[in-house]
């Protein structure tokens, strides 16, 4: 199966594949052309710089510190430098500079990131882990990968 792939730093790759992060943010509409397509998730070698995600998990999502550690461990199940899973790409839009506080907080919870104004937001859904990791060097922006059929997860049950 040939699909587009995008590299994510941890903990965000794990958050996407474990269904915690359902909105991806970028300063340009990188994923807008992939609406209704599947995207492969590559786990980068490096971590995300900053820890604002931790506060959003504990405060906005009411996840306790032990659960945060479990989430981090779950996101590392295949290690780094691998294509670990797939996600479906939805609508992309630019977050307005002014947005009602409740709406902004909801988007920040779904993105697990503050400061969304002006960024392009893309809905991600149906995350699924591959049966085993596919080792691959990361790239900047999107690239195309070939995922062997034997690694594809079972289709979701309706």
Automatic annotation (TrEMBL):
SMART domains: ASCH. InterPro entries: ASCH_domain (IPR007374), EOLA1/EOLA2 (IPR033615), PUA-like_sf (IPR015947). Residues 6-103 form the ASCH domain. It comes from the Eukaryota. PANTHER family: PROTEIN CXORF40A-RELATED (PTHR31666), PROTEIN EOLA1-RELATED (PTHR31666:SF0). This is Endothelium and lymphocyte associated ASCH domain 1.
């Amino acid at each position: 199966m040939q699909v587009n792939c995008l590299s994510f730093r941890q903990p965000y790759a794990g958050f996407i594949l474990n269904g915690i992060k359902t909105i991806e943010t970028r300063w340009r509409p990188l994923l807008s052309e992939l609406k209704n397509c599947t995207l492969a998730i590559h786990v980068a070698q490096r971590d995300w710089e900053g820890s604002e995600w931790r506060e959003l998990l504990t405060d906005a999502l009411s996840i306790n510190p032990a659960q945060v550690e479990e989430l981090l461990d779950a996101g590392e199940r295949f290690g780094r430098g691998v294509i670990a899973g797939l996600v479906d790409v939805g609508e992309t839009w630019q977050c307005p500079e002014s947005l009602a506080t409740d709406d902004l907080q909801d988007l920040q919870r779904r993105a697990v990131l503050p400061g969304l104004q002006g960024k392009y937001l893309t809905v991600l859904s149906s995350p699924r882990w591959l049966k085993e990791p596919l080792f691959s060097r990361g790239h900047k922006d999107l690239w195309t990968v070939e995922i062997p059929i034997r690694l594809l997860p079972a289709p979701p049950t309706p």
